[in-house]
Amino acid sequence: MTAPDRQPITYASAGVDVHAGDRAVELMKESVARATRPEVVGGLGGFAGMFDASALRHMRRPVLATSTDGVGTKVAIAQAMDVHDTIGQDLVGMVVDDIVVSGAEPLFMTDYIACGKVVPERIAAIVSGIARGCELAGVALVGGETAEHPGLLGPEEYDVAGAATGVVEHDDVLGPHLVRRGDVVLAIPSSGLHSNGYSLVRRVVAAAGWAWDRHVEELGRTLGEECLEPTRIYTRPLLDVVRAGVGLHALSHVTGGGLAANLARVLPAGDLATVERVWTPPAIFSLVQELGQVPLADLEQTLNMGVGFVAVVAPEGVTRTKEVLSGHGITAWEVGAVGDPSTADRYDEPVVQGAKGVDGGAVQMVGTYPG
């Protein structure tokens, strides 16, 4: 077969620039170098990240915990705002704080960035956020991948994902097996929307015809700046609570599904946690509700409502837990307790259970948010 008379097709003409990828790696080296731990073996650029597992020899029965996640459609706002150095912290928070739920210490993380076109400065900005998040969590960033997908993603489009691994002593694993009736439910504040529910938020904003650079008086900044507020990383504060031996029985990361559904996952089957709406959610939550006329039930099962984590603690450990968190600048507050499910009949409120396929306990949100 005779080839037609045309210019040769190269990888670059197909839309993939390997040299741009190399430049991106050079730009991100300084950030990645700060996100490390003494146990890391080797450096950036290897085929696999390596971690010296002999550091775990002092443990009696080490259990590895792993998690993987992304940040959903929050990336669309970062792209619209052309702000790319915060989305990486969101990614770290979503991954490593799922590991902390079990009481495990996250050790190392890898990331994956898929994009339509490698713009070295943009990729480096994304990775700088990932590295910053790893620093905050005390986690090593041991590797990653940037993949250019022309024709599948637009030149300005990208998505991010990551995975992390941690470790915990078998006897120290937190969860439903430790929870007792009478345990207190503590709410730990979020920094804002975190990284869930952005399909709802974006739909509300689009329907209202608002722009991301619109200044919103009740937020004190633009809507886009508020929505890009990085996810709070709870790793170090919560690990300090774990190590304090205060009677911490369970933790719940409030992500997709909201507070009730995620708390139900870490309660024993047959138990009910009654959570009172005694706090005032930050302004962004009421703004989304009012702007989109979103029903409260839908809002609560989509957004965190100002609570990023929940701790289930023995009554005698509540004061000390609050003190440890306060040392990290975090103010936790009591929102309820674990008890008998028969008490649900006292309130005309729905009971949430069976979330995420877990045959766990149940949660009932009661009362009205102040203000």
UniProtKB/TrEMBL annotation:
Reactions catalysed: 2-formamido-N(1)-(5-O-phospho-beta-D-ribosyl)acetamidine + ATP = 5-amino-1-(5-phospho-beta-D-ribosyl)imidazole + ADP + phosphate + H(+)
Keywords: ATP-binding, Cytoplasm, Ligase, Nucleotide-binding, Purine biosynthesis
Gene Ontology cellular component annotations, sorted alphabetically: cytosol
Enzyme class: ligase
Predominant location category: cytoplasm
Source species, domain of life: Bacteria
Domain PurM-like C-terminal: 181-340
GO MF term set: ATP binding; phosphoribosylamine-glycine ligase activity; phosphoribosylformylglycinamidine cyclo-ligase activity
Pfam families assigned: AIRS, AIRS_C
Keyword ATP-binding: yes
BP term (GO), one: adenine biosynthetic process
The protein's name in its UniProt record: Phosphoribosylformylglycinamidine cyclo-ligase
Organism: Ornithinimicrobium avium
Species lineage: Bacteria, Bacillati, Actinomycetota, Actinomycetes, Micrococcales
